[in-house]
Design goal:
The complex is a heterotrimer. Helices cover about 75% and strands about 0% of the residues of chain A. By secondary structure, chain A is mostly helical. Helices cover about 75% and strands about 0% of the residues of chain B. Chain B has helices at about 5-25, 30-55, 60-90. In chain B, helix 1 packs antiparallel against helix 2 (about 30-55) and helix 2 runs antiparallel to helix 3. Chain C is built from 27 helices and four strands. Chain C has a two-stranded antiparallel sheet. In chain C, strands 3-4 form a two-stranded antiparallel sheet. In chain C, helix 1 runs antiparallel to helix 5, helix 17 runs antiparallel to helix 19 (about 395-410) and helix 20 (about 415-430) crosses helix 24. The termini of chain C are far apart. Chains in contact: A-B, A-C, B-C. Chains A and B meet through helix 1, helix 2, helix 3, helix 4 and helix 5 of A and helix 1, helix 2 and helix 3 of B.
């Protein structure tokens, strides 16, 4: 795997992620989010999982940001206020804590990956992870119905 | 050579960013966006471990798939709720809905 | 079956009588309960006389001539039986093999004589009450109470274990309370019963403390053991003095000695047979009896002088106050206090036998006098001697029996009081002249107030009582009652003529008169000092020849006659003339304000801690509770701001919580 590719994808993913969480402009935040997820899809490709990359691209990198833009429009929140001072401190604290959690991650072994073909993943889903698959379908159905019910205009 | 450690470190950094966003953002939609970043970071971590360490079952990648599914479901409900909040309170900022307080 | 073996029936029968009357008394017709109770006491009297006879047979016999001549070596004529003093013992409170507290009946000469005295007095008082209490709604209850009281007194006298003495003592105190307040609807009776109970109960602390301390010293409550040399050696002089004085305090309370005399006068609120039984003949004598039983300890602790001093002072004090009263029962009550003082004086000057002789004699003639007064009250419908109309003319039997009792009280030979009182005075004279003088002056006053009482009540026509409407006795300040809370007793209606009492009452009076004469003579030289050779302290009786006592006899009689003579001189001619200044009369009738002092000052002192405690409760205890409430309000006022309702703050809380968990070890 190419180290350069990784660093490029990773660096830009981080940059756009940071932009997404700091900018006051909500629309720009949504787009940054989309780009971040797109880059993560690229990382999935690097990991040898095109199926996952495709799904990531289709859902997270397009559908979600579109939904986000819709809601931004419907709630008229084009811009967001800046964080309060203590919130910045809290956020930095949280970030530091997260990094401490991950300190054990550094320096793990070799670079051998096993690519997965979409076919293999599909077969797995419908055989070994069948129950999960079905439950996830139901979950999506519920979410869809629930969102429609919650979001519809009330009579009168 | 790219190792698992690289991927995990990236996942951790993305987590940090996501956490920073949850605590910092004033607009609730932005908070949900930060949550989304968190979820993606987690999925990335699962997927990378599966790729490097789990040649037979690659369970982590399946799991990453389901994380995406759940994240989508959760976001749609969340946005529906926020829509309601906007309709009743007129804004979706973090201090708009503070009636239940001491 | 000897009377000794049957002796436990003596206290037991009246106790059973009590139970019987409580359960079935009200179902009996008319005076049934009275006759049953009297029948029980008759059996008890027979048993106790039998017991006395057995004791006389078993006691050592003495040669009178040798005793009188002082030849002590030849005095013993017949050795006493080896079982004597008799002792019956049952195991009562025994824990795991230890002796614990056994139930002991101890019968020595003193116990036998006093038991017979109590039984006989109780019998005739029961007989008297059959007629006297007739018409009373709670007639059976009265006799039930008398029975239980008799049981307790007899148990007290026969007790060989001081623990049971204490128990009987307390039961007597309870019965005294119940009987004083028998006519409880009267406010004065209510106050009087409380006053009696509280005063004696306070004094009883002395008995308890002394007794338990004694137990710590010698390890048992046994009466006979206390008199033995080895046991006494275990107790130091100081401890003996302390224990002895503590017990003496209880005796002072029970026998109404100064300054604990205050309750006895108001105990006259009870029906007259009660006054006769409890507050003249028996219960008040229990204090003297107890002191007599603790004699070895008092000698060892060298505190007999306290007993003598208290007795002498009380005898004088009471005798001086008596002439200021018009109520016949109150005069007799002061007389009781005074005579009890004589007994303690006797004990205190090593005149143990003389004091015991006076105890027995006094029981009979005082009971006689009280029952006689009951007859007077019954016939004349008043308790005030001024309102009594020439009772000698209308109530001859009452008059002559009362006169016998009065002569005994005054100490005129050959009546009982003469023999016993002069023995006491002789012992006092040998010991301390001042005590002897006090006794002598008291004897003068005794004769004075007794004669006054007889002259005005029996010989003078009815007249208006001089002090009934006096303002200084409005209400009853000595009972803590205000002017509106107590009415003076009603006077007899116009044209009321006194009438002699019923046959049961007269029979009782005659019997008691005969007994008081007999007892007096039993201890006199006339019948060979019989009583004094039976009941004595130490190894052998100490009999003084009449020649030695003659000086005392003459002095005593002259003093008594002088007192009587003065009373006749003053009251026969002009009974209503006020010979004392008003302030003195008022002070004497208000008992020198001692009772009121107790109520006000001691009452306030006792209440002072309650005020402090109330403050403590209100500010400290309540304050603490309020503080807790206040603190929780403050805390909540502070803490509730944590729930701000703001999302960003809650997100921070979640972060902090997670961090805390991580730091705390949750991975």
């Amino acid at each position: 795997m190419s180290l350069t590719a990784f660093y490029a994808l990773a660096a830009f993913a981080l940059v756009f992620a940071i932009f997404a969480v700091t900018t006051a402009n909500m629309v720009r935040a949504a787009f940054s989010l989309a780009i971040t997820f797109f880059l993560i899809a690229g990382l999935y490709l690097l990991l040898g999982s095109p199926a996952l990359a495709a799904i990531q691209f289709m859902v997270n990198a397009s559908a979600i940001p579109i939904m986000t833009l819709f809601i931004i429009m419907m709630t008229q929140s084009r811009s967001s206020a800046g964080p309060r001072t203590w919130q910045i401190a809290a956020g930095l604290l949280a970030a530091a804590a997260a990094l401490v959690f991950f300190k054990g991650a550094v320096g793990h072994g070799d670079g051998q990956i096993t690519p997965v073909s979409p076919e293999t993943l599909g077969v797995n889903l419908l055989q070994a992870a069948l129950l999960l698959f079905e439950v996830a379908s139901v979950l999506l159905l519920l979410a869809m119905v629930g969102a429609i019910v919650l979001a519809r205009r009330r009579a009168g | 050579m790219v190792t698992l450690g690289h991927f995990l470190l990236l996942s951790g950094l993305l987590m940090a960013v996501g956490l920073y966003g949850v605590l910092t953002r004033r607009n609730l939609i932005a908070v949900l966006m930060s949550v989304e970043i968190l979820l993606n970071a987690a999925a990335l971590a699962f997927a990378s471990v599966a790729a490097f360490r789990d040649p037979h079952l690659f369970a982590g990648q399946v799991f990453a798939l389901f994380v995406i599914v759940v994240a989508a479901a959760e976001l749609s409900i969340g946005f529906a709720i926020l829509l309601n909040v906007y309709r009743t309170h007129g804004a979706v900022t973090d201090d708009a809905i503070s009636e239940m307080r001491g | 079956m000897s009377y000794v073996e049957l002796s436990y029936w003596i206290p037991l029968l009246p106790a059973l009588g009590f139970v019987l009357l409580v359960l079935f008394g009200h179902s009996l017709p008319g005076r049934g309960s009275g006759w049953i109770a009297t029948a029980v006491m008759a059996v008890v009297a027979v048993l106790s006389l039998g017991l006395l006879y057995d004791v006389i047979l078993a006691a050592p016999g003495w040669d009178l001539a040798a005793l009188l001549g002082g030849h002590h070596e030849e005095a013993l004529v017949k050795a006493g039986s080896p079982d004597f003093p008799f002792r019956l013992e049952w195991s009562w409170l025994a824990i795991r093999g230890e002796a614990g507290i056994p139930l002991v009946i101890y019968i020595d000469a003193l116990a036998a004589v006093v038991t017979a005295m109590v039984a006989l007095a109780s019998l005739f008082i029961h007989l008297f009450s059959i007629g006297y209490m007739d018409g009373e709604e709670r007639y059976p209850t009265f006799f039930a109470y008398l029975q239980l009281f008799s049981a307790a007194m007899l148990a007290f006298v026969l007790a060989g274990n001081f623990f049971h003495s204490l128990l009987s003592w307390e039961v007597m105190g309870l019965m005294s309370y119940l009987l004083i307040g028998f006519l409880y609807k009267k406010k004065t009776a209510q106050q009087a019963q409380k006053k009696a109970f509280i005063t004696t109960k306070l004094a009883d602390l002395g008995f308890m403390l002394g007794l338990f301390w004694l137990y710590l010293l010698i390890g048992n409550f046994d009466l006979a053991d206390l008199a033995s040399e080895p046991t006494l050696a275990l107790i130091g002089t100081g401890a003996a003095a302390a224990v002895g004085l503590l017990v003496f305090v209880a005796a002072m309370g029970k026998s109404a000695q100064f300054p604990l005399h205050v309750w006895l006068l108001d105990a006259m609120e009870g029906p007259t047979p009660v006054s006769a039984m409890i507050h003249a003949a028996t219960m008040v004598a229990a204090g003297v009896y107890l002191t007599a039983r603790f004699y070895p300890l008092l000698i060892h602790g060298e505190v007999l002088w306290v007993v003598a001093l208290v007795g002498a002072f009380t005898a004088l004090f009471a005798a001086v106050l008596a002439p200021a009263f018009a109520d016949v029962k109150k005069i007799l009550a002061w007389s009781t206090v005074s005579q009890l003082g004589y007994m303690f004086l006797g004990l205190g000057v090593f005149g143990w036998a003389a004091a015991m002789f006076h105890l027995v004699a006094h029981a009979f003639f005082k009971a006689l006098l009280f029952l006689g007064s009951g007859s007077m009250i019954h016939g004349a419908a008043t308790q005030d001697i001024f309102e009594m109309d020439q009772l000698k003319k209308y109530m001859p039997w009452t008059y002559w029996t009362f006169l016998i009792g009065a002569l005994a009280l005054m100490g005129i030979p050959p009546f009982a009081g003469f023999w016993s009182k002069d023995l006491i005075l002789h012992a006092a004279e040998e010991h301390a002249t001042i005590l002897w003088l006090m006794g002598l002056v008291a004897a003068f006053f005794t004769a004075f107030y007794t004669t006054r009482m007889i002259v005005i009540a029996f010989h003078k026509p009815a007249m208006e009582s001089p002090w009934k409407a006096a303002e200084w006795t409005r209400g009853a300040p000595w009972l803590n009652l205000g002017p509106d809370e107590a009415e003076p007793d009603p006077s007899p209606p116009e044209g009321h003529h006194p009438h002699e009492s019923g046959v049961e009452m007269i029979a009782a009076l005659v019997a008691l008169a005969a007994l008081s004469l007999a007892v007096g003579l039993w201890g006199s030289p006339v019948f060979g000092y019989g009583l004094l050779t039976l009941v004595y302290w130490g190894e052998m009786p100490e009999i003084l020849p009449a020649a030695k006592l003659m000086g005392g006899y003459v002095t005593g009689t002259l003093v008594a006659l002088a007192g009587a003579g003065l009373a006749v001189y003053w009251y026969a001619a002009d009974p209503l003339r006020q010979r004392a200044p008003v302030w003195l009369t008022a002070a004497l009738q208000r008992r020198l304000y001692i009772d009121e002092f107790y109520y006000r000052v001691l009452g306030a002192l006792a209440q002072a801690p309650t005020y402090a405690l109330e403050l403590f409760d209100r500010y400290l205890v309540d304050g603490l509770v309020d503080l807790v409430g206040y603190l929780s309000l403050v805390a909540s006022a502070f803490l509730r701001h944590l729930q701000s309702g703001r999302f960003a703050v809650y997100a921070l809380y979640m972060l902090l919580g997670a961090l805390a968990l991580y730091v705390g070890g949750v991975r």
